Amino acid sequence: MAPRTKTPQPPAPHAADSHDLIRVHGARENNLKDVSIELPKRRLTVFTGVSGSGKSSLVFATIAAESQRLINETYSAFVQGFMPTQARPDVDVLDGLTTAIIVDQQRMGSDPRSTVGTATDANAMLRILFSRLGKPHIGPPGAFAFNVPSVTASGAITVERGNKKAVKATFSRTGGMCPRCEGRGTVSDIDLTQLYDDSKSIAEGAFTIPGWKSDSWWTVRIYAESGFLDPNKPIAKFTKREMQDFLYKEPTKVKVEGSTLTFEGLIPKIQKSFLSKDREAMQPHIREFVDRAVTFATCPECEGTRLTEGARSSKIKKISIADACLMEIRDLAEWVRGLDEPSVAPLLEALQQTLDSFVEIGLGYLALDRPSGTLSGGEAQRVKMIRHLGSSLTDVTYVFDEPTIGLHPHDIQRMNDLLLRLRDKGNTVLVVEHKPEAIAIADHVVDLGPGAGTAGGTVCFEGTLEGLRASGTVTGRHLDDRAVLKDEVRKPTGALEIRGATAHNLQDVDVDIPLGVLTVITGVAGSGKSSLVHGSIPAGENVIAVDQSPIKGSRRSNPATYTGLLEPIRKAFAKANGVKPALFSANSEGACPTCNGAGVIFTDLGVMASVSSPCEDCEGKRFQASVLDYHLGGRDISEVLAMSVTEAEEFFGPGEAALPAAHKILDRLVDVGLGYLSLGQPLTTLSGGERQRLKLATHMGDKGGGGQVVVLDEPTTGLHLADVEQLLGLLDRLVDSGKSVIVIEHHQAVMAHADWIIDLGPGAGHDGGKIVFEGTPADLVAARSTLTGEHLAEYVGE
């Protein structure tokens, strides 16, 4: 008889397999209120909630920040000295973390030499390819790089080896940088008539440059007393020699009133002081001067390719590296696929994979020579994703900040597939998102709220999408919101004519944008919407573009200083207490002397993380103790700056502290959905959508009135479903006040609410750039002739 066998018991789970959750306990970063939560690993978790509810504080400022800090601590102290330092987030326990890769919407650097190719390493691979296969052979990869100048040197260097001395006399390096434009592709030409009035002498104040007064030391006096020219002679009567020195002289030391100063020609001085700076960082009056005085033209020597003639002469199959970078990436991918060269097979494979990733992620319409500073936030985020798509890493936490921004409904499905692919490789994917189409693919949903700012910071719901629908939270209630088409649309009062627009991929577009109505410009990503609006609408004093670019300012700038709100508040405090207004500014006389009005003291610990701790003297209030003895309506200035916009609106309304000037500004901030921001919150902590809405609030106070054209670039960015309705009301109010509103937008609710829609397409890149529809939303839905029409019809249930 066969012996009896025992049924094998299933093995006890291995201890290593028990770590399948990311545990967060007692998170208090920003507005989080002791949040404790457990997130499943190797799943896709979507974080929802109204703007300002604490999503980014939990995902980015707590989970991702701690993961990155712990990884940085594994490096040697020497290496850590070169890395950005991070303080530990305010949380009791963080357990089960994995390596976090953050893919955010920060715009890529605005360096004029940074392109899509240099930002993704595609250029580096192309340079190696051309240095190996290009005919004629012109040199190593650096010879094809527009960031590398050619260098030749002759002379002698002495190398001491033993008793002998070896002398080398010459050195040369071939670079690909065009010497005329220095690898920028454009050259600047300065209009001299905008710099000075040549009928006047320097002593009479000939200069018309902002800040150059006739008695200012550092500029005009040097020209007047340099000895190179006659300060009392009109500039038009300068000799040839004087004019040459005046405009182009090399930096030369001169004595002026006993001091040694540097005299330099006007043109190089202007180039250094104005043209080397980022245009967006300039003050408005300086920017206006630069726009007036400087014209940028395509470099005549390299024809805008940024490369030397040698780099352009070397070709593979009749294509130079300049031609390759000008191609749309999907066409370049096909060209690379056709190259059969066993000697560079691994290189071709890696390049092919990178280019295919562009196409797969919906960026096949870009070209490698596109400046990275011109990409939108959504495009920049997708470009950063490219290096992770083919990665073999697993068990990584990928953190995304609204990856559907800038995507047409048609493209959102593709993005969803990519997120699911990352998850299916065994990674944890955390996504902050508002779009219902993106929330729909979540394995796990975390809803924060219930409100924004101090009214948020708690977890209202955790579970499945169906559970969220039935939960009764703000997100749950608005998940199935659908805007309806308007019964009647407004009649235009005129038209903004665009003729023969050819910017980027536009194909000789003629279009009339109606004025006095709400116009929505839409189309798939890369169809030419921004080129049409930002590149073709004639810029005049009546056109205001409100975008999401960062607001330049330090951590001392806040909504109160940016909107001009602080001015009436300081004056009201000063009047009520009979003292100077300057006392109520943390950047002026009222500042706490210990922390200089910053509210925190930063301690640099060398290679360790810098520590910021609240100033002990002012307890983070930023003001001297004596200033806090002065009150207005029972509150001191630090308590007013700690208020949210909504609280302050009530405080400065009718009553003891009534202040109409401040109330008007606060009303506008509430109108644009920023009621949850605190007045003293640093501008550096705002998201792209918040920055745009803050700029919009300031422009709403402009005296432009009727006839003003307001251009908005995706104002629904970062807006919760519940806030979109408020935004539509705001757009209506802008139009009803006599302004014309042009909105670049993909959100179907805004399209449905428009008076007029202009749809670009039919595809992206060279497949786009045409007007495929003009008319009312109802006509677009009825025709269903474009991708937008199909998606809008589906959205409104037609």
How does the helix and strand content classify structurally? alpha/beta
Q: Let me know the number of strands.
A: 27
State which percent range the strand residues make up: 15-25%
Provide mean pLDDT, rounded.
87
Number of continuous helical runs: 28
Structure summarized in a few sentences:
This protein has 798 residues and is of the alpha/beta class.
Plain-language structure description:
By secondary structure, the protein is an alpha/beta fold. The protein has 28 helices and 27 strands. The strands form nine sheets. A six-stranded mixed sheet has the order 5-14-15-3-16-17, with helices on both faces. A six-stranded mixed sheet has the order 21-24-25-20-26-27, sandwiched between helices. Strands 2-1-4 form a three-stranded antiparallel sheet, with helices on one face. Strand 12 and strand 13 form a beta hairpin. The mean pLDDT is 87.
Task: Name a few traits of the molecule.
6-stranded mixed β-sheet, 28 helices, repeat, nucleotide-binding, P-loop_NTPase, ABC_transporter-like_ATP-bd
Fold blueprint:
Elements: E1 21-27, E2 35-40, E3 44-48, H1 55-72, H2 77-80, E4 91-95, E5 100-103, H3 116-120, H4 122-133, E6 151-161, E7 164-173, E8 186-190, H5 217-224, H6 240-248, E9 252-256, E10 259-263, H7 266-275, H8 284-293, E11 294-298, H9 309-313, E12 315-316, E13 319-320, H10 321-326, H11 329-337, H12 345-360, H13 377-389, E14 397-401, H14 409-424, E15 428-432, H15 436-439, E16 444-449, E17 458-463, H16 465-469, H17 474-478, E18 494-501, E19 509-515, E20 518-523, H18 529-536, E21 543-546, H19 559-562, H20 566-577, E22 600-603, E23 611-614, H21 637-642, H22 645-651, H23 660-671, H24 688-699, E24 709-713, H25 721-736, E25 740-744, H26 748-753, E26 756-761, E27 770-775, H27 777-783, H28 787-796
